[in-house]
UniProtKB/TrEMBL annotation:
The keyword Membrane applies. This is Glucose 1-dehydrogenase. Belongs to the short-chain dehydrogenases/reductases (SDR) family. The keyword Lipoprotein does not apply. Signal peptide: none annotated. Keywords: Membrane, Oxidoreductase, Transmembrane, Transmembrane helix. It holds the Pfam family adh_short_C2. GO terms for molecular function: glucose 1-dehydrogenase [NAD(P)+] activity.
Length: 251
């Protein structure tokens, strides 16, 4: 199990105060890492850290303010030490007919879900490359695998994340930085369970095209993130791992 042991590693999880981000933070701690969760809502982050325990810390940040990201990374490394792992999980959603999406709305989703991911990855990589080691885990979506109506901006951004994973892996892997991506399928969170239970037709469609015929658990995504960040995935870079019960290949 030593290859999966993250003792002594420092992990930054964006959007780590709730949902899949919180689950990933919890799983990283289970495998020995120290974790910093970042987000905009201090009260949510504070509550999350109380649940996560002494191995967790938080930092309040609005990642859509791209100009502040270099100082944010500098502050994290000065206060907590060198980052070993970055998990780009933070994101926002917009459900709306494509014809009704304004340029400002589209740009806002792309800024948070794509531009901020690149800016943060770039600044963290500036620190990792001289050390010749590090792992960056992107978080994509089933929206990057097939067309889903009413989420055009989100789909555009998540599709870009998949491409960015490959391009950055080619550039930075020679310097010892691995970049990989997780594409979660339909995961049983409080929000998704409520949405699917209120829409039996959609729930039937989701399960009908999922070969494993069930929703995933948040810890399924957390374990995948730990694997990609750990030495167990030491020869894996530029990969996108669907954690979806087979949904993306279901018929």
């Amino acid at each position: 199990m030593n290859e999966f042991n993250l003792s002594g590693k420092l992990v930054l999880v964006t959007g780590g105060g709730s949902g899949l981000g919180l689950s990933m933070a919890c799983t990283f701690i289970r495998f020995g890492a120290r974790v910093i969760i970042a987000g905009r809502r201090e009260n949510v982050l504070q509550e999350a850290v109380e649940k996560l325990g002494p191995q967790a810390s938080f930092i309040t940040a609005d990642l859509s303010a791209l100009e502040n990201i270099p100082a944010l990374v500098e502050r994290i490394e000065q206060e907590y030490g060198p980052l070993d792992v970055l998990v780009n999980n933070a994101g926002i959603h917009l459900k709306k007919d494509a014809l009704d999406v304004s340029d400002a709305e589209f740009e806002n989703v792309v800024r948070t879900n794509q531009s901020a991911v690149f800016a943060l990855s770039r600044e963290v990589a500036r620190k990792m490359i001289p050390r010749k080691k590090g792992s960056i885990v992107m978080v994509s979506s089933m929206a990057s695998r097939y067309g889903i109506p009413k989420v055009i901006a989100y789909t555009a951004a998540k599709s870009a994340i998949e491409g960015m994973t490959k391009a950055l892996a080619v550039e930075w892997s020679p310097s010892g930085i691995r970049i990989n991506c997780i594409a979660p399928g339909f995961i049983e969170t409080e929000m998704s369970a409520k949405a699917l239970n209120n829409d039996p037709e959609r729930k039937s469609k989701v399960l009908g095209r999922t070969p494993m015929q069930k929703l995933g658990k948040p810890e399924d995504v957390g374990l995948a993130a730990v694997f990609l960040a750990s030495d167990a995935a030491g020869f894996i870079t530029g990969a996108s791992l669907a954690v979806d019960g087979g949904n993306s290949i279901g018929f």
